[in-house]
Amino acid sequence: MPHSISPETDNQNMDTVEETMADAPAKNDESQEGDNDITMEETNTLPGVVKEEEKMDVKLEEILAAADSDDEFPSSAPEPVRMNAADPEVMRTFYQRFFPWRYLFQWLNHSPTPTNDFGHREFAFTLQGDIYSRYNSFPSADLLRKDVLRLLPSRFEIGPVYTTNPRDRKTLRNSSAFKPLSKELCFDIDLTDYDDIRTCCDKANICNRCWQFITMAIKVVDVALREDFGFKHIMWVYSGRRGAHAWVCDKKARTMDDQKRRSIAGYLEVIRGGAQSGKKVNVWRPLHPHLSRSLNILAPHFQEDVLEAQDPWASSERAEHLLSLLPDKALNESLRKKWDSSPGRASTSKWADIDSLARSGGGSKNLDTKALLDAKQDIVLEYTYPRLDIEVSKKLNHLLKSPFVVHPGTGRVCVPIDTRKLEDFDPLGVPTVQGLLEEIDSWKGDDEDGSEDKAKNLQDWEKTSLRPYVEYFRSFVLALMKDERDPKIKREREEGQAMEF
Amino acid sequence: MLRQDINRIDPKRRNVVDYRKKQFAEPTYKETEYPHRLNFYETPPTADITLEQFEQWAIDRLRVLAELEACSFRNYSPAETAAHMKPLLEKYLPLDSNSSSSTKLSAERQKDHYSHFILRLAFASTEDLRRRFSRVETTLFRLRLAEDTARERNAFIQSLNLDWEPVAEDERNKYFAELSATSGSRKGEEETAWYKVDWERVPDLVEARRVFLRAGKAYVPSKELPSMVTAEFTKRLDRALELTARALPRLDEDDRLTPILDHLSKNFVTPDAGYFSSAVAGAEITARNIDNLSSHFPLCMQHLHRSLRRDAHLKHYGRLQYSLFLKGIGLNLEESLIFWRTSFHKITDDTFNKEYRYQVRYAYGDVGGDSNRRGGGSSPFSCQKILMEHPPGPGEAHGCPYRHFNLENLTSLLQQVGVSDRSVLQGVKEDKENQKFHMACNRVFEYVHKNELKKAKDEGIMTAAELETIVHPNKYFERSYLLKNLGKSNNGDDVKMEGF
Ligand SMILES: [Zn+2]
């Protein structure tokens, strides 16, 4: 799993720097539909080939621009090799100029002035040569930034807040005094878990068609967390390649023990079992309100994004899987006959055939319509309901990749996803580290009022396409800090009153 | 005198738990009244009881708890457990309902109340004991709650003053569809009452999607009340046990109570499988006799013994599992040290003293912290522990062969110890496939002792209860030894709870 590290419970033999297997960046991130997804290796080494193959590609201009603009770089700019996202120099520039340290600090600290929420928080770095360094902690955002600039990790992860400073864990006389106290409730959805139902791409590849699975998953999980559990501060973050993470930051969520995390995970988990397990959905009737609500959300996606876009039962082999999920043998026989006689029949039609044949007496004499309806609901759920990597959610001390780091394979920044404009989110269009370097180099400061003074006050990220994402993050963090602060103010006020008497 | 002894718990608990009320609390020692059959055990007892009662009541409760734990290990369903426990509960810990005609209600409830607190004191010392005590007490509570009449149960729940907000009618109407989807009731029986609680209070119901959730509140149908009450019972008991544990070191040593408490906790360590007695009458349990005795050992211990003889060494968990077993059959510390020293014949005295001696002494409670000494060291592993904890790695000989060996190696080991009957091996294979490892072990036991078992049954020497499924290696040894020596020893009575 690329962005989830199993919790390390035994810290006796932990060294500050540990080696683990870092996931190898997938070599080929190019999708089949020419949907403007180009790996950086290609832009560097094979621009000509890309140009010829990616006809009408919106990225073409950028590639040409990148090639052309090499000459225009100021002499201080790094060599063109910097275009590799794994290049330490690229990462240095990124961390120095673009990474929103201040908001990351406020996000984790819940207050503008440093507290243990930040100081006792574990950071884990993935360093050059697949070295994995755990239990780092920092008193302030600036010290974190300094260390990141010194070590230039290809990415870093965020762990829990501990009872004591993680760096001091070995000097404690009593090792049981070092315990994780709190961490955001996290969710991880990854498109590789959809490989048995998506037909457009597989493995590390994604396109905008299969991204819809993530879109519907976010809708279903987000609404459950808000309406059912009452959480307010939920941030969804693009994982940089083929999935999304959720960070539930409410204080109530952060302080939950593993049992509570497990029960939320269980509440949300519907799809169970691996490739060989057959029926993956087994739910009680009547459907739990969470499930009927989810079905309402998912039904239109099932029609458009699954049946039409994925055509999941095109082959007779896949159609057999559909039949295996239907309860009436006689009806299955009629369906099989019909589909065999019209090869290539679209999944949309096949889905409609179920009802029409059932209605016209294609099923057994005493066809159980209730069982058929239930089975159809289960099928909709199997093909649309979020597939969560539930282990990430169950453990308080699980680490998860930080927002705004760069995915080393794609160069894309792990930006937050604005759920108000969820449908508009384009995973292939998010800023890449290479793109950002170009944008900042070509920035003239003339987009709005062109005032020199204003331009000087701008942060580098404000001059690039990263801006809306950082601004979204900022407003998220401000709202979170406000909620954390308010109870305190109230208490102080009460105490103040008591003093007067 | 004794009254004060029991009160040792009382003021301290009140200090911690009810510090706010402390100034208002009246230190009266009036008779506790028991309006309800069930008890949340929130108030420690205050009245006088005799030393005899103190011990007897605790032992009686311990029998019940030990048997409950055995039921859970045998995977009994709640109904099976209830049926199995009924005669035991009637004998040792009867608890009649208000509506019964019993004249002993108060006495029964007092015994239930006191015995709970005595055992709480005895079993607060280690985390393991606390966890197990909490688990079986919860099982007992759940069982009793289930057999309460609806009216008495509701009266009891009302008396607890739990802050569960009843769902008002307008809200019930507003969420009519959602609530009926989660009521889980069969047609005909309409759920009418709902309670609203923070969802964190009912994590199990949330996880299983058995409650409707809205804005962090769980809407719990009244039929789920027993499970909520039980969860609350466990939560409070766990907290109370923590507090008792912290208070323990401060308790004055009492010459008469300390040995009783020690003894109780020691015997709770093993009853896991209903296993109480350690020494078997008439057996010569010495270092030099272990080779002879090993024919009575269950397969796991035979394997450890054979590995030890073959390699003159056992790794850590193997030493632990085996030395505690030997301690359980009655090998004393001195003999144990001799046994291990002579068994590890390839190493020097110096190495032995440096690396192994301490562990043996620790197992006997001869060294280690207060709680280790108080508990008499570690207790022999039950089958459950051997099956569930620390599966053996490469080069390790501990664990349960029925679980941790592959079929081929298991069959070969069984043949080496003389079990080659095809139908038995076939049965073991099926048990293993069905993950019924203790069934396999009992199957082998029955085969090896088939003649003796027949005799014992025919002559009525051992009762059915004494021939129940073995779920503890020490029980295996004990029963094996007794059966093989049926003619020599007088009868099976020697086995009974001699520890007390
Ligand atoms: Zn795709």
UniProtKB/TrEMBL annotation, chain A:
Name this protein carries in UniProt: DNA primase
> Record's Gene Ontology CC terms?
alpha DNA polymerase:primase complex
A single MF term (Gene Ontology): DNA-directed RNA polymerase activity
What UniProt keywords are attached to this protein's entry?
DNA replication, DNA-directed RNA polymerase, Metal-binding, Nucleotidyltransferase, Primosome, Transcription, Transferase
Enzyme Commission numbers on file: 2.7.7.-
Recorded family membership: Belongs to the eukaryotic-type primase small subunit family.
Question: Which top-level group of life is the source organism from?
Answer: Eukaryota
Bias (Acidic residues): 31-40
Has the keyword Metal-binding been applied to this entry? Answer: yes
One of the GO BP terms on file = DNA replication, synthesis of primer
Q: Where along the sequence do coiled-coil regions lie? A: none
From start to end residue, where is composition biased (Polar residues)? 1-15
Question: Is Transferase there in the keyword field?
Answer: yes
TrEMBL record, chain B:
Under CDD domains, the record lists: PriL_PriS_Eukaryotic (cd07322)
Gene3D superfamilies the record matches: 1.20.930.80
An MF annotation (GO) of this entry: metal ion binding
Question: Which cofactors must be present for this protein to function?
Answer: [4Fe-4S] cluster
Can you tell which superkingdom this protein's organism belongs to? Eukaryota
Residue positions binding [4Fe-4S] cluster: 300, 383, 400, 441
What's the record's note on cofactor binding? Binds 1 [4Fe-4S] cluster.
GO CC entries = alpha DNA polymerase:primase complex
Domain named DNA primase large subunit C-terminal: which ranges? 295-477
Keyword annotations from UniProtKB, A to Z: 4Fe-4S, DNA replication, DNA-binding, Iron, Iron-sulfur, Metal-binding, Primosome
Q: Name one GO biological process term.
A: DNA replication initiation
Family the UniProt entry places it in: Belongs to the eukaryotic-type primase large subunit family.
Describe its function: DNA primase is the polymerase that synthesizes small RNA primers for the Okazaki fragments made during discontinuous DNA replication.
Q: In its UniProt entry, what is this protein called?
A: DNA primase large subunit
Which lineage ranks, top first, belong to the organism behind this chain? Eukaryota, Fungi, Dikarya, Ascomycota, Pezizomycotina
